Amino acid sequence: MKSSDASEDKSSPKAAIVIQSPAGDKVCPHNNRVSCASCRLSELCLPIALNKSEIQQLDDIVERNRPYKKGDHLYRQNDGFKSVYAVRSGSFKSYVLSDNGQGRVTGFYLPGEIIGMDGIASKHYQNSTQALEHASICEIPFSQLERLSHQLPNLQHHFFAIMGNEIAKDQQVHTLLSSYTAEERTASFLLGLSSRFARVSLSPTRFLLPMTRSDIGEYLGLTVETVSRIFTALQRKGLVDVNNREIELKDIDGLRGIIGSNQAKS
Amino acid sequence: MKSSDASEDKSSPKAAIVIQSPAGDKVCPHNNRVSCASCRLSELCLPIALNKSEIQQLDDIVERNRPYKKGDHLYRQNDGFKSVYAVRSGSFKSYVLSDNGQGRVTGFYLPGEIIGMDGIASKHYQNSTQALEHASICEIPFSQLERLSHQLPNLQHHFFAIMGNEIAKDQQVHTLLSSYTAEERTASFLLGLSSRFARVSLSPTRFLLPMTRSDIGEYLGLTVETVSRIFTALQRKGLVDVNNREIELKDIDGLRGIIGSNQAKS
DNA sequence: CGTAGTGTTGAATTGAATCAAGTGTCGTGG
DNA sequence: CCACGACACTTGATTCAATTCAACACTACG
Question: What is the pTM of this model?
């Protein structure tokens, strides 16, 4: 399997994550020969709080697959649960298909984030997950992760924390969806993306949206048209500068001010 | 500390959980002298999949506090995270206060369910949780649960599953809030309650709602008035029989039919 | 017995969806 | 390299589901 040509990519200069030549192990995030120890995401991914030898043990169970192309599925709803996945580069979306065939997006995943924990309890993934762009993944077979967690208290502790974080985040989304207006949801979404980009050392104020307006709408419980209208409205207010998928947050505090400014319902 | 008088309760005959005299350790769910081994919830709570000696070890770290009165707080938003809690009897709601003082309910908890996992990651509870009625709790100090999980692979596995279940459930709520109509949300909510009551051997078709219409509305992202209207609408359709807090699901399949019957948005 | 909290119902309003008609952008193959 | 087609996005007009405002009934508890 020649990994080198697969990571080749004639990406345009405005790509959020510039893809470099696959020469250095420490540099190219698409390169699947990278180790946990040398990965630049190790500070926010699973290896956090592990010592050198522990990282090595984790490294041994991680499988680095071929890169995923835009639209490729990591898994589909109801597939047997086998692994959780850490995003190494690119981005993914999870979605479920409702009875009438319409999809609803349940989450977006950026580098350093963990995908697939919804399958742990039922042993089947509860949603489908696909790449939004050229992307790569570290696959972590869950049974092995459990075994290793049993040996390494730090890893167990950290994985509890990762799951707890997911729960806390989901509850924030619950509040967002149950009480925020379209404008508040959108502002909150942009701010959330901003801080997640910052986590991976990308600009928190200028980035490319990896997802479509439709994806955003399905995630926030809005229609495409509403998302589009809100974007132009925020632009008219001077809070953001939107140009297709390119976005610049021009007034972070102003965006924060949007949230909660509209009076909530009873 | 006399536990006997605290569990005394002149509950009306229509109480969902009839409170019995605190004589037998195996019977009264409010009785705090019950052990995990003798608890009738052991099949769905933490002890599941543990053997006798393991249950004993779990039992040793569980703290059974005094019962909680309606409105008592288990913890408040931003309190330091110390424990997770298993509901032994009664019910609880979690909520957050939005900036403008309005509360939004993030969850309801029935016997056998685990509360407080939102605090694991940040070490502070992300919401406040209070009893909806006379209730009792098993407190499980999290650091001890972690230590024990490290010794008992079954417990580690099961706690991963409990957290994974919470994540999967939260994502279903995400879909519910982002794409269901008021009627679909309400029907789905009632069906969810029904199966949760069934889990604890209560009638899945006739039960008392432990929460107010307002709580339901705050949870589902609707106003009190809408919830009330939907209830009467479902009653007119012959699907339910509502009488204040008493509810009877007269046509479960009909209620299931509501969900997804209204066309979803783009 | 009165009062506060809880629940219901009606009428008017509104935020976001729907319907409709475009323009812009990208990737593909001729 | 350009033309084509498919998809992504925008904007406007209209509609509608749910909120808001308002008034009132019920219940439960001190």
Answer: 0.88
